[in-house]
Write a sequence for this structure.
């Protein structure tokens, strides 16, 4: 990733990208990996993580604002979005659904950059069905109550690493299932190093272990992997749709507006991201 020029605006834009990925990483049902894909930082991130030491000097300027933004998203923006979900859960959820589904057209275009085959569409269907079944099964189970400790915070970090590297995987859903989501969120918000450090260690370990194999799969099977991601994105979004809720006319109008607003924001974010990214390549 070779930079010709960088501006304050493009630097701040990468901070925003990192913040959105961090927010998505901590929200139930939202995947930080998916957001990194739709914001256009997934591929450069995978290239960097596959050879972190060899390419550190070359890529540090590009990824530093993303890392800063990620920390801001996890610690600060997650509080705001958490409040939004608590106070206006349905509109907030439909806003996020619009944001995610609004990026599917750009994902589809990117997935076809190296052509499409019947196998690519099969991969899309198989990945989507598998993810839908997995998340549905996970959501139907009874919540466990595990006593938080160093070991389980490390496990949370490992799962978080998977969520960042494997688009569509939302570890927060698993944290809720294990009964660890609330204590983890409280610990991060309070900057409790007893929570943050083991999670960070687990995240780094998992990223180091799986980043190179995942990049290899993308290099060798680009169309299959990207179409699989599309299936995962669609399936993980369908699972979080609150279709079982009772809606009155006003609820329908508000949620529909939020969905459209989210999709429109996603469209313009993709356009802005594309232009800004071209300016620093």
């Amino acid at each position: 990733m070779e930079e010709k020029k960088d501006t304050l605006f493009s630097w701040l834009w990468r901070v925003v990208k990192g913040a959105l990925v961090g927010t998505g990483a901590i929200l139930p049902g939202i995947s930080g990996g998916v957001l990194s894909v739709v914001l256009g930082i997934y591929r450069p991130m995978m290239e960097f993580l596959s050879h972190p030491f060899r390419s550190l000097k070359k890529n540090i300027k590009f990824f530093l604002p993303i890392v800063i933004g990620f920390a801001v998203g996890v610690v600060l923006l997650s509080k705001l979005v958490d409040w939004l979900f608590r106070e206006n859960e349905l509109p907030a959820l439909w806003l996020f659904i619009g944001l995610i589904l609004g990026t599917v057209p750009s994902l589809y275009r990117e997935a076809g950059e190296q052509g499409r085959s019947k196998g690519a569409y099969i991969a899309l269907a198989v990945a989507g069905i598998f993810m839908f079944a997995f998340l549905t099964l996970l959501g139907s189970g009874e919540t466990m109550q595990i006593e938080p400790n160093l070991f389980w915070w490390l496990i949370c970090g490992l799962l978080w690493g998977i969520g960042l590297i494997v688009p569509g995987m939302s570890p927060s859903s698993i944290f809720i299932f294990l009964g660890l989501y609330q204590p983890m969120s409280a610990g991060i918000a309070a900057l409790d190093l007893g929570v943050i450090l083991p999670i960070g260690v687990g995240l780094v370990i998992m990223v180091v272990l799986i980043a190179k194999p995942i990049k290899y799969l993308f290099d060798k099977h680009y169309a299959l992997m990207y179409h699989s991601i599309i299936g995962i994105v669609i399936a993980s979004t369908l699972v979080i749709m609150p279709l079982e809720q009772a809606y009155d006319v006003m609820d329908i109008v508000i949620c529909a507006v939020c969905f459209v607003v989210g999709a429109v924001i996603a469209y313009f974010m993709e356009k802005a991201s594309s232009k800004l990214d071209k300016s620093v390549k």
Notes: The chain has a mean pLDDT of 80. The CA atoms of residues 85 and 102 lie 20 Å apart. The radius of gyration is 18 Å.
